[in-house]
Amino acid sequence: MATDYKFEGWLGESAEAIEGKMVWKEFEPKKWEENDVDIKITHSGICGSDLHTLRSGWGATRYPCVVGHEIVGVAVRVGSKAEGDIKVGDIVGVGAQADSCLGRGPKDCKPCQTDEEPYCVNGNVNTYGSLHRNGDKAYGGYALYHRAPSHFVVKIPDGVAPEHAAPMLCGGVTVYSPLKHWGVGPGKKVAIAGVGGLGHFAVIFAKALGADEVVGISRRASKRDEAIALGCDDYIATEDDKDWARHNANRFDVIISTVSSAKMPVADYLATLALNGSMVQVGAPEEPVPVPVFPLITGRRSLAGSAIGSPKDIREMLEFAAKHNVKPLVEKRPMSDANQAIIDMEAGKARFRYVLVNN
Questions:
Q1: Are 153 and 91 in contact (CB under 8 A)?
Q2: Dihedral pair phi/psi, residue 71, rounded to 5°
Q3: Distance in angstroms (rounded) separating the CA atoms of residues 124 and 341
């Protein structure tokens, strides 16, 4: 069935796209299947992953690409086999994952059987820069329309504004999921390494979950006031106190590290963990990170990682945000301003997330 709308968006045609050189063009979405949903995009968050992908920082990107995996909009076409009771006119969202095996792969997949789709053993389909299971290219949300398999389309609940929901679909759930998994709440002291786009989500969710203490860790003292305003009980500026790790030794039960630099002081972070404490890495550096072993051994500490969140995680997070009035700090930018917005994001100007808006 032909549609009366076109799929147009900002295409990155080479690694130069990161310099604000994306080009607005029409593109061909995946072939329609009856489990799909077409979304008229109203809001699309800018995620750090978009920048890594545009410049091929995590490996060679399949150009041309349309980035953006924090998509909110209106369902305008719903397949006859669509999941989730989605109807035309519903406000819906799509995060960083477009598909997984869902039992269709060659290997038995426990993650897909237990609502842990991001860890699919047969391989994920990312919302952009990937290939769908039918072989078609996946395009993201810096666009007018998006087509997605319905299993990974979630309804946006009442009480969560679309400009707040959009960045939660990747940035928010990337920290909400490990905070829940590692039991952050009353009785736990948690540090957030890197108080930026991801980190600000970690602070506000950790506070809403009832952690006894939430402490921001970053290099510069200039971020102290921002961190405290977000809800941090304390703030550690590592460049101002060369002995900061020793002064905060054995303090935290959990560290959520959103840092994406390979130069992060992993040994110092680990030294601040209490006995049996866990450091969870969610930032994804483009280069390998050396792992010091002795701080792990001497405190029976754990170094772990965590990916995005499943559709179940996203729904739970959105309901939690609605109930607890969790609102990220966002700046809305017109979709037409996408090139300048990624330049500003790369320069660290976002406070704390940019959201592109289609007028």
A1: no
A2: -105, 130
A3: 28
